[in-house]
TrEMBL record:
Membrane topology label: Multi-pass membrane protein
InterPro entries documented for this protein: ABC3_permease_C (IPR003838), Lipoprotein-release_system (IPR051447), MacB_PCD (IPR025857)
Gene Ontology BP, a term: lipoprotein localization to outer membrane
One Pfam family recorded for the sequence: FtsX
Top-rank taxon: Bacteria
Major localization listed first in the record, in broad terms: membrane
Family: Belongs to the ABC-4 integral membrane protein family. LolC/E subfamily.
Subcellular location: Cell membrane
Protein's UniProt name: Lipoprotein releasing system, transmembrane protein, LolC/E family
Keywords: Cell membrane, Membrane, Transmembrane, Transmembrane helix
Organism of provenance: Terriglobus saanensis (strain ATCC BAA-1853 / DSM 23119 / SP1PR4)
Length: 409
């Protein structure tokens, strides 16, 4: 062990005449540990929120959507769909027909967004039909059945009090024109399944019908609203969307998951930066404790320093002793903080013991996603701040004059 590190370690272990120095040193270690642990947990939460929101969004929606600029939808869509499937970077494509409806069972009702789908194609671009909680979506695959099937989101089904096997009434505002005026059209469906994605936006409003049933409900025999795509590189979905739009021709426009959720992910990134800065102040406070502890240590060890220097220890060696002492405090606190922080984050990510309101946060539990790179960054910041805090007391120790310090001994 180097001489400076040996002396620094002895100073930390030795019994001091002034117990307050030892207390401040312990507080410094705990402060650094608390700051590091808080940063690790906070960054794990922001990473988890971003990861879960992104994965659920991508699981519930397509990477790219193609639609008409005009509001009349896409007609003669089958040749267009086959042509779009052959484009580079497109791995799957599915048609869909959207429409706002009122879904009711007895006196209870709720607004819903019907999506008419071809189930086999829809499963290639969205995971919603694969997240069935009760019942089954198999009836959607059948071209004919005794009762028309419908699949609802779990929160929507709870809102109207419907269970699998119940009959629900779907009322469309796009009704039929009669001599008495426009009459809303309604149709009864059997609830075949209930899906739960964990994403409130979909669980509270989405409902799936067979495409032919939806076209009949909306009185549109050969119309779709959108063609949804999965692409081979989701992080280049914006560029691929432009290629799809160009291939579709005039009168079409595209949207992609990055553009639709840009503000959400920008807010999460800003939250991550602000969290790092705010909680990082805890480490700065702990660094001030290190400065105070080392300053008091220099005052207490003035005679020891003078004796060491009279034996030939150089001023730069004395400086390194107190630098090493501050770094030992920081390393001990950082290691303890990393242990506590990662343990808490891993347990939180595994057991999901913190529940959230899905109506507010879009997800129903607090996710944790600890990353190794965050530990490296937090450790580097902690050690750097602590090193800055040791500069003044170590420089003061190096300026001790042996003759002055030992004059009255």
């Amino acid at each position: 062990m180097r001489f400076e590190l040996f002396i620094a370690a002895r100073y930390l272990r030795a019994k001091r005449r002034q117990a307050v120095v030892g207390v401040i040193t312990a507080i410094s270690v705990v402060g650094v540990a608390a700051g590091v642990a808080s940063l690790i947990v906070a960054l794990a939460i922001t990473n988890g929120m971003r990861r879960d929101l992104q994965s659920r969004l991508l699981g519930s929606t397509a990477h790219v959507d193609l639609m008409r600029v005009a509001a009349d939808g896409i007609r003669d869509w089958k040749p267009l769909l086959e042509r779009m499937r052959k484009l580079p970077h497109v791995t799957a494509a599915a048609p869909g027909l959207y429409g706002q409806v009122l879904i009711s069972r007895g006196p209870r009702s709720g607004g819903g967004l019907i999506k008419g789908v071809l189930p086999a194609d829809e499963r290639t671009v969205s995971d919603l039909l694969q997240s069935i909680k009760t019942g089954s979506a198999a009836d959607l695959d059948q071209t004919s059945s005794a009762q028309l099937p419908i699949v609802l989101g779990s929160d929507l089904a709870e809102t109207i009090g419907a269970r699998v096997g119940d009959t629900v009434l779907v009322t469309s505002p796009q009704g039929e024109l009669t001599p008495l005026g426009l009459i809303p059209k309604y149709q009864r469906y059997r609830l075949a399944g209930v899906f739960h994605s964990g994403f409130y936006q979909y669980d509270s409003s989405y409902a799936f019908l067979r495409l032919a049933d939806a076209q009949k409900l909306f009185t549109e025999p050969d119309l779709i609203s959108v063609i949804s795509f999965k692409v081979d590189d989701l992080y280049h979905a914006d560029k691929i969307a432009k290629e799809i739009e160009a291939a579709a021709g005039p009168g079409f426009q595209t949207t992609n998951w990055m553009g639709q959720n840009r503000e959400l992910f920008r807010a999460l990134e800003l939250e991550r930066i602000v969290t790092f800065i705010v909680i990082g102040l805890i480490v700065c406070v702990a660094a001030l404790n290190i400065l105070i502890a080392l300053t008091m240590m220099v005052m207490e060890k003035t005679r020891d320093i003078a004796v060491l220097m009279s034996f030939g220890v150089r001023a730069d060696q004395v400086r390194r002793i107190f630098l090493a002492q501050g770094l030992l405090i920081s390393i001990l606190g950082t290691a303890l903080g990393l242990l506590v922080g990662y343990t808490a984050a891993i347990l939180g990510g595994h057991y999901h013991f913190i529940q959230l309101s899905a109506e507010v946060y879009s997800i129903d539990y607090l996710p944790f996603a600890p990353r190794a790179i965050d530990g490296v960054i937090v450790s580097a910041v902690s050690l750097a701040v602590s090193l800055v805090a040791t500069l003044y007391p170590s420089a003061s120790a190096a300026r001790v004059l042996p003759a002055e310090a030992l004059r009255y001994e």
